[in-house]
Design goal:
about 200 residues, alpha/beta, eight-stranded mixed β-barrel, 6 helices
């Protein structure tokens, strides 16, 4: 296991040395939302590399229909080819499914999710997963329609264990976001356990 933070433009200033000193071993970076590159993405990538931290990326989705999710996947692919030389980020590409906009379609939200993931897998990326809250993972997303090989990153705060992983032993539960306010230096950051 290793400890990982996830950050976006909401974190305008990161004390990267404090992050390293706190024993953080990786970082997940927001790549974008609404087809716009996160304002801090390039800076955050460069700093992660400079401090020797492996990284992954996540895209915050608003897709309620399959064609919208496919368009989001194509946009993410374009950004990765532009800014990361097309390399699969070591800690994965994650589809952040939590926004109520995603519930406006006539199909269960799992279908846009599955199509985002399959679109990127077909493009040759080998590590594409789903991020969502425990409530969505257990009550909103029909996970029976999502292949078991898709890694899951679950968010569940103020618990001493990853309930989703315990309740779903057949799933690849790659990460658990256990807090959104861990103090690291003078910062409060989202912290995760990454299961290697």
């Amino acid at each position: 296991m290793m400890k990982v933070i996830d950050i976006s433009a909401w974190q305008e200033w990161i004390d990267w040395q404090a992050v390293k000193d706190a024993g953080i071993e990786g970082v997940i970076l927001k790549i974008g939302e609404h087809y716009k590159l996160d304002e801090k993405f390039i800076e955050h990538v460069n700093n992660a590399v400079a401090y020797g931290l492996p990284y992954g990326v996540y895209y915050y989705s608003h897709a309620s229909f399959i064609h919208e999710a496919v368009a989001e996947a194509n946009w993410v692919d374009k950004q990765i080819k532009t800014y990361l030389n097309g390399k699969n980020p070591e800690l994965g590409i994650w589809y952040d499914a939590e926004d109520k906009d995603m519930l406006e379609g006539y199909l269960n939200v799992v279908y846009p999710i599955a199509n985002f993931i399959s679109t990127l897998l077909e493009k040759g990326y080998n590590y594409v997963g789903l991020y969502s809250y425990y409530n969505w993972l257990t009550n909103i997303i029909d996970l029976k329609a999502l292949p078991d090989y898709v890694p899951i990153w679950s968010a569940q705060y103020n618990y001493h264990q990853n309930s989703f992983a315990i309740e779903n032993p057949h799933r690849i539960c790659r990460m658990w976001q256990y807090t959104d306010c861990e103090r690291i230096g003078n910062m409060r950051l989202d912290c995760n356990i990454y299961y290697e």
